[in-house]
Write a structure and sequence with these properties.
The protein has about 375 residues and is α/β, with parallel strands linked by helices. The protein folds into two domains: about 15-20 and about 105-380, Aldolase class I (TIM Barrel), CATH 3.20.20.70; about 30-100, DNA polymerase, domain 1 (Orthogonal Bundle). The chain is built from twelve helices and 15 strands. The protein has helices at about 30-40, 50-60, 65-75, 90-100, 170-180, 205-215, 235-245, 260-265, 275-290, 305-315, 340-355, 375-380; strands at about 15-20, 40-45, 100, 105-110, 115-120, 130-135, 140-145, 145-150, 165, 190-195, 230, 250-255, 295-300, 320-330, 360. The strands form three sheets. It has an eleven-stranded mixed β-sheet with strand order 1-4-5-6-7-10-11-12-13-14-15. α7 packs parallel to α9 (about 275-290) and α10 runs parallel beside α11. The chain is elongated and about 70 Å long. The structure holds S-adenosyl-L-homocysteine. S-adenosyl-L-homocysteine (SAH) binds next to β11 and β13.
Length: about 375
């Protein structure tokens, strides 16, 4: 699997089309009474299958209704209980009173001419996250957020500029996947998931795993773990936990520098961790999962793109079974970084390839740049929403 095909945070989206999603939203003009009723309803997507069955039994319904409800939501793309035509009317009413399937509001949608949709969605508490659908040949990949904001502080990234507000719930992670799936025509299915949106997935591992468990379940979205990638800044204890879970998700580690001095500057959490520990846990993940590792390297002009860094990277990676995914920086307004020149990209590539590193360079899609990860959220004041 080529992660470069699925990378979304450095997408260059042209802001040609801003339009609302044609999906159920909480209408902000509704009465306060209505809003409080909605807020008191549980998010159905947060329930486990056993929670749902317990609720059904308590209400006097058969267990198998649980499977029917999930089938309607994940496979038949129902957005409302009233569409679930093979459920008894009473059950549909009771579900309606107790739960909401979708709890988010669409704030903005950016559609690029190359078939990429980037959504900014508002959560029940007002927090905002982004998620992306990429169409590439027969692939339908999605990039999903795990947190509101990010605490990792990578100095070039828009997502963490204001720190982290909170972890997303399992239901909020799943809802992004469903919102993106619902944009596809009935005959198309999602094929790949990357946890590369806002936030650090390994800092919210339980909920990320809960959501991915349903995404990979044939009765859920039915996407094989081998087509699911978790991207991390590199948190060794959490990578080890992921190894022990034993599900063969792909792991992508955001390296961005080949030595601790530079990495600690660019990725501040590295100060307390260090590259050796990150690589050690990544190696253990490879041993237990058998999945080839991906390392991500955002190329910042004049910062980490010299011959010296390329040579150091060769030493770090050449003996490992990895893919190095090099991404030219997607500029973020207000940050002092720039995309490297074509020449320095070519030199960097040459050094890595001749050093025997398996490397992919992601090309930026066109010159317009709008939406690096977290930028849509920051810039939404300047675009027309809904
Ligand atoms: N926290 C996780 C996942 C979210 S970021 C991680 O660090 O991997 C996903 C990827 O997007 C990371 O490799 C991140 O460094 C990269 N990224 C963030 N901002 C970017 C930008 N402006 N241009 C290019 N890549 C960016």
């Amino acid at each position: 699997m080529l992660i470069s095909d699925k990378f979304c945070c450095s997408l260059s989206l042209s802001p040609t089309l801003y339009r609302p999603l044609n999906l159920p939203v909480i209408n902000s003009t509704d009465s306060t009474a209505n809003e409080s009723t909605l807020a008191s309803k549980k998010h159905l997507l947060d329930l486990s299958a056993s929670d749902l069955i317990a609720w059904l039994i308590e209400k006097g319904h058969a267990k198998f209704r649980g499977g029917q409800i999930l089938h309607w939501i994940f496979q038949r793309r129902a957005t409302e209980f009233s569409q679930m035509s093979d459920l008894p009317k009473l059950l549909r009413q009771e579900l309606e009173e107790a739960f909401q399937i979708y709890v988010t509001q669409s704030e903005a949608t950016v559609t690029s001419p190359d078939g990429t949709d980037k959504l900014l969605i508002k959560l029940r508490d007002g927090g905002e996250v982004e998620c992306v659908l990429l169409r590439d040949g027969t692939r339908r990949s999605i990039c999903v957020s795990s947190q509101v904001g990010c605490a990792m502080g990578c100095v070039f990234c828009a997502s963490g500029l204001d720190g982290v507000d909170r972890n997303l719930t399992k239901g909020e992670i799943l809802e992004q996947m469903l919102l993106l799936q619902n944009r596809l025509p009935d005959e198309e299915r999602l094929s790949h998931i990357v946890m590369m949106g806002m936030g650090e997935p390994l800092a919210n591992l339980d909920r990320v795993l809960g959501a991915l468990g349903i995404a990979s379940n044939p009765k859920g979205l039915g996407i094989s773990p081998r087509r699911i990638t978790i991207s991390t800044v590199g948190l060794p204890p959490a990578i080890d936990r992921l190894s022990s879970v034993g599900i063969p998700y792909n792991l992508a580690v955001s390296l961005h520098a080949p030595n601790d001095e530079l990495r600690s500057e660019l990725v501040p959490v590295n100060r307390k961790i260090g590259i050796d520990a990150v690589l050690g846990s990544a190696d253990r993940y490879f041993e237990t999962s058998g999945r080839r590792l991906t390392f991500e390297y955002v190329l910042l002009g004049g910062v980490n793109d010299s011959e010296h860094e390329a040579t150091q990277l060769v030493h770090l990676l050449r003996k490992r079974n990895v893919l190095l995914n090099v991404i030219p920086y997607n500029p973020v307004e207000g940050l002092p970084y720039s995309t490297p020149t074509k020449r320095s990209i070519a030199n960097f590539r040459q050094t890595l390839e001749s050093g025997g590193v398996n490397v992919k360079f992601r090309q930026r899609k066109g010159s317009e740049i709008d939406a690096a990860c977290g930028q849509l959220r920051r810039n939404r004041g300047s675009i027309s929403s809904n």
